[in-house]
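Quick illustration for those who missed Monday's session on complexes.
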Amino acid sequence: MNVTESNSFLPSELSRVVNADRLLPNQPTLSIFFKGDRDTFAARLETVTNSVLSVANLRDKWDLTEAPSFSYEALGSDLSGLHFLQVLVRLGNVRTALEVGTYIGVSTLFLAEAVGPDGQVVTIEVGEEFSEIARENFRRNGMEARIELINSDVASVLPSFTSAGKAFDMVFLDGDKGSYGVLFEPLYTILRPGGLMVVDDVFCNGDTLNEMPTSDKGRGVKALLDKVAALPPDHTRVILPFGNGQLLITKPE
Ligand SMILES: C[S@@+](CC[C@H](N)C(=O)[O-])C[C@H]1O[C@@H](n2cnc3c(N)ncnc32)[C@H](O)[C@@H]1O
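Prediction with S-adenosylmethionine bound:
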């Protein structure tokens, strides 16, 4: 059997596929066998991705007070992203995690569950109302012993961490995108050797795909991306193009 015969179930268009054609599941190449209506693709994708999760609705997992101003879906991480954080924590045997951007504390709860009873999550949130709601959510879900919430601007907190010689196994950056560029070095400094940095929303709703980002947020994320691109090759890193883009960087031992 020659190569063409053994792959005869594959449409001939696939022979012309380039890498950019297969980044996202809804691109024609990767959805070639989907028989449903295109309008139903996202819903079917969600059904299948959620089907393997331990819980398909975060409100079934956690007893949550939500912010009156925004729905969780407007500001918080998506369900797969939250479970992905837990996989990373378990994979990296993370015991200490730093989160920038708590919002109402949902990603913090996922991190706290994954680090286990002996682990510690420090989370920084500038908003007072969000901090109060998050604290309440930690209490209601019995996680307050594993979580330290600092209600402050991250930029004013990091110098004290550096001078105290703090070192985290994992840093999850999910705060104001406009300051990603200036936060990268101080956060990388307090990541322990061998640690993992996760940066959320690196596509910035499409703005970082422009040659020149058009918003302060986009410019902030682009500044971080440029710094990461300039790291030596032993700082292994990847952007996973799911959701709004997740960047992972490992710091060499
Ligand atoms: C995208 S939300 C975080 C979502 C949360 N990590 C989750 O997935 O459930 C970003 C949060 O960062 C907070 N934030 C923005 N600028 C900040 C700063 N300079 N310092 C600390 N927190 C900040 C915002 O108030 C907001 O609650």
